[in-house]
C-alpha cells in the first residue's frame, strides 16, 4: 500500500488523485490530520487514517502495512520553527521505518541547502540529511518553486498595477499539477532513488518577466518596481506584516538572486511524458 501524508492539502490531494488514475483505490492510503476532510476519498475506497507528525502513535497506525510513504513536507518553515519542523519530519521518517516501508518519498525543494538565506530550504536540507542517515531507501523530490507562490506574489500587483519587490532572480516556476503527476509516476512505477534532479517548469522567470506576462494575460499594465531591501522591509511593516513573514519573503528574494531557483531541468517533462505547464498557463487557469 502507498500512503500519502498531507492529503487534505493541495499537493498531497493532487498526488492521490493522480494515483487513483494509476492504481486500484485499495492500494492507496492517506495519513491526514483531520480524517473528516478526506471522507470523499474514503467513499472512493482509499484507506483514511489520522496521522500527525507531532504524534508518533498516530503515524504508527496511519503507516501500518505501507510499502511506500510519501511524506509531504509540513508547512512549518519559518526560521524560528526549523527545529520543530525537523522534529516532525524525523518522527515521520522514524515511523515509516518502524512500519517496515520499502521506500520513503519526501517533497523537498530545488533550492534545498543548509546555507540558504531562505529558511524553508534549510529545513529541507536537514530533512534530506536525516533521510540519508535513516538507512531506508528514499527519494527526495527536488520540486520546483510552486507557480502558485508567484500568483500570491502578484496578487496585490493585480489590484494596484505595481509589482513592488526588491532585486530578485529568475525562478523555474512549477505547477502543483505537474509535480503531483511526477510523484504519482515515481510512486507507482518505482522510479528515481535518492535525491532527484530538479523537477521544474519549462522556464525561469524573474519578477520583471512575471509583470510582463501578467500584463499580457490580464490586458493591463503591471509595472515592476525595484526597491531596496530596506524599503521593502519598511513597506511590509507599514502593511502590518509580521517580522517573521518579512524575513521569509526577503529570504526568498535573496535566494533567487543567488540563482538558487534558476535551473530548468528536463526531468519533470520526462517523468510526466509532456512539457510541464509554464507560469503563463498557470496564471491563465487561475483567472479562468
Ligand atoms: N515547492 C515549493 O515552492 C513550495 C512552496 C510552498 C510550500 N512548499 C511545501 O510543500 C508542502 C505541500 O504544499 P501544499 O501546497 O500542498 O501545501 P498545503 O496545501 O498547505 O498542505 C500542507 C499539508 O501539510 C500538512 N501538515 C501540516 N502540519 C502537519 C503535521 N503536523 N502532520 C501531518 N501533516 C501536516 C497539512 O495538513 P492539514 O491539511 O491537516 O492542515 C497539509 O495537508 C508545504 O507544506 C510546504 O512544506 C513547497
Secondary-structure topology with pairs:
Elements: E1 2-5, H1 10-20, E2 28-32, H2 39-43, E3 47-50, H3 56-62, E4 68-71, H4 82-98, E5 103-109, H5 119-134, E6 137-143, H6 147-153, H7 155-160, E7 162-166, H8 176-188, E8 194-195, H9 207-218, E9 223-227, H10 229-238, H11 243-257, H12 267-272, H13 279-287
Parallel strand pairs: 1-2, 1-4, 2-3, 4-5, 5-6, 6-8, 7-9
Helix pairs in contact: 1-8, 4-5, 6-13, 9-13, 10-11
The structure holds NADP nicotinamide-adenine-dinucleotide phosphate.
Question: What does this protein structure show overall?
Answer:
With 288 residues, the protein is an alpha/beta fold. The protein has a domain at 2-143 and 175-200 and 264-276: 3-Layer(aba) Sandwich (Rossmann fold), CATH 3.40.50. The chain contains 13 helices and 9 strands. The chain has helices at 10-20, 39-43, 56-62, 82-98, 119-134, 147-153, 155-160, 176-188, 207-218, 229-238, 243-257, 267-272, 279-287, and strands at residues 2-5, 28-32, 47-50, 68-71, 103-109, 137-143, 162-166, 194-195, 223-227. The strands form 2 sheets. It has a 7-stranded parallel β-sheet with strand order 3-2-1-4-5-6-8, sandwiched between helices. β4 (68-71), α4 and β5 (103-109) form a beta-alpha-beta unit. The longest helix has 17 residues, at 82-98. The radius of gyration is 19 Å and the shape is globular. The protein starts with a strand and ends with a helix. It binds NADP nicotinamide-adenine-dinucleotide phosphate. NADP nicotinamide-adenine-dinucleotide phosphate is lined by residues 5-6, 8-12, 32-34, 52-54, 72-75, 88, 107, 109, 143, 145-146, 149. It holds the Pfam family NAD_binding_10. This is SDR family oxidoreductase. Residues 6-146 form the NAD(P)-binding domain.
